[in-house]
Design a protein that fits this description.
Blueprint lengths: L4 E6 L2 E6 L9 H16 L5 E6 L22 H10 L4 E5 L2 E3 L1 H8 L2 E4 L4 E3 L13 H9 L1 H10 L3 E2 H7 L4 E2 L5 H12 L17 H10 L1 H4 L4 H12 L5 H16 L2 H16 L17 E4 L3 H12 L4 E4 L3 H20 L5 H9 L1 E4 L10 E4 L5 H14 L5 E4 L6 H6 L7 E6 L8 E5 L6 H11 L5 E5 L7 H18 L3 H11 L5 H8 L15 H7 L12 E3 L5 E3 L1 H13 L9 H8 L1 H12 L6 H12 L8 H8 L1 H10 L6 H9 L4
Parallel strand pairs: 2-3, 3-4, 4-6, 5-7, 6-9, 10-11, 10-13, 11-12, 13-14, 14-15, 16-17
Antiparallel strand pairs: 1-2, 7-8, 15-16, 18-19
The structure holds (S)-3-Hydroxyhexanoyl-CoA.
(S)-3-Hydroxyhexanoyl-CoA (3H9) binds next to β5 and α3.
Amino acid sequence: MTSPIRTERQGDVLVIVSNNPPVNALGAAVRQGLEAAIKEGVADASITAMVIRCDGRTFFAGADITEFGKPLQEPGLPTVIDMIEASSKPVVAAIHGTALGGGCEVTLGCHYRIAVPSAKIGTPEVKLGLLPGAGGTQRIPRIAGVKLALEMTAIGNPISAKAALAAGLIDRLAGEDSLVADAVAFANEVAAKRPLPRASEGIATADPEAVAAFRKANARKFRGFDAPAANIACVEKAADGSSFAEGIAFERAEFMKLMTGTQSAAQRHLFFAERQAAKVDDIPADTALRPIKKVGVIGAGTMGGGISMNFLAAGIPVTIVETAQDALDRGTGVIRRNYEASAAKGRFTTDKVEAMMGALTPTLDLEQLADCDLIIEAIYENMDVKKELFGKLDRIAKPGAILASNTSYLNIDEMAAVTSRPGDVIGMHFFSPANVMKLLEVVRGAQTAPDVLATVMALAKPIGKVAVVSGVCPGFIGNRMLSQRQQPATEMLMEGALPEQIDKVHVDFGMPMGPFQMSDLAGVDIGWHRDPTRIESIRDALAAEGRWGQKKQAGFYDYDERRTPSPSPRVAEIIADFRAKAGKTDRPIDDQEIVERTLYPMVNEGAKILAEGMAQRASDIDVVWIYGYGWPVYTGGPMFWANTIGLDTVVAGLEKHGIPVAPLLKEKAAKGERF
Ligand code: 3H9
């Protein structure tokens, strides 16, 4: 087998080149090749300096994640990096693309670093539930200080080459198109310079105030995750007077703890799940896509506005249609205000705001959609109205245009059936707020054409979404599972639990909110029959009293002006009243029962969704729940979580409460299999 590493001589400089597509991950063959190449450069008396660079789209994007959890093949990355740093001849890292994780750590082992201006440098391991385990937590603070090291390791966002230059993480910028020549020139320039600058020999200054402030500022973001604290502890260790060797030993121990834990396994699962979700099993990867140069959105309400924002931000012009001028003005006004708020936070320039608004065409005339390549309807959920609209679109839209519905539970096939082109019809279910939430549930109708599905799946990436394919069923993947937790939660109110107890179990589990907090946010009055004298459920009773949720500052909770919830004595009264009328006696309900009756049924429903082929794979369901509903990332999503607690445990829990177990779940549990 040929090595992914080759060496080339440029005068007295040995250029070490990696060619390991797609992202030059630092797998075993790369590490072995690097080790051999460094040895070659050190041993060859005619070589005065070395350059490490990569072919393809990026510098090393990190350790090879597919090797994690398997026996280590020598040499390990820390060994290779130590060897680079120990070299008696200068080594220059020549960076383009993204030098991430282990890739960034390789650059820190080098004595000098040069990067093209477009390069990005970072240690995103925390997003995989890990920490930079090849010296990163010890070298970054020694070069760039504790403050930046905390941000880079515990938050994990990459920084620009310019920022890296300012922080000393790179020494100079190369020309965008002259990296190799500039790196070789740099190597020649420093060839005779001694002593060699070695990051491990630097001293990091302790900054307890910065650490405390950082912890406080990010407490919410870090809630529930193990890795951020471990990253912080390692950075602190680098600056507490310990030797580099002691710091490295500490880093190694922390890294191994994380690597063998459930959280990192869950986060690595998500990394691959997210990428897998983009693939549709029966559609070839090279399917020709339909060009999407202009998008039409029908409805300028919260959903339509949010959907439009995604395309405008991606540089795709949008025509937005409403039925009345005031609604249209309101909708476009909200879009502008949202963009301006983001600009005020420094997310983009005011020029960009104007460019995006300039690409938005508001209109009351549906005919204006005639030249759109994709039309998404985001009107209210009524099948008759939607069918009428699809009939009109069939007449107006140009041939080949994709006709999409943002429905969250209605049948796409019924909408497709009223058109003469059912193959062009698809569901694009965005989640609210649509400009923020990352999930896009793509609903594949019975007749949706393969190239239509492939086009919409490919469109997700440029608009910053993670797309998952769902079949046609009520509520699709996400809302279908959601309904499975709402009903038992309400039943438990009748048996002795209070909304705050049930919600707390969900929040402690890591959800952004529990079932009743979600009801209050969405509106208790949604789907209400609007007859205050007809009180058949707790929900009816709340709605009849005008307790419609957050918008009325009263729902399952009481709210103050800042929308901070507090448990409501009135709600407790209503519930007690209902229980009494139903002749039910209270009993204590413990937290475990809440988990078993609200979360296990979701897994159960997930198994049915899988068995019916409504989801392509269990990991797609995990992606839906993590990106659409905020299921805690560190548990890996409902199906991965079920694997970790054991499918037999889930089955036993469901049976205990008399909930019928899905055959697929039962079968897998009996065979000792996982999803
Ligand atoms: C680490 O370094 C630990 C060390 O500190 C300590 C060690 C001791 N490994 O994302 P894309 C695959 S932890 C294996 O679609 P893009 C990916 O699955 C690592 N495979 O491309 C996909 O495969 P497929 C720290 C990887 O252009 C294909 O490459 N580093 C890896 O949108 C294309 O990926 C990171 O966390 C990997 N490291 O984005 C960086 N990376 O085609 C992780 C990617 O079969 N990577 N693949 O689906 C990224 O963030 C993005 O891939 C990157 C490119 C920004 C580089």
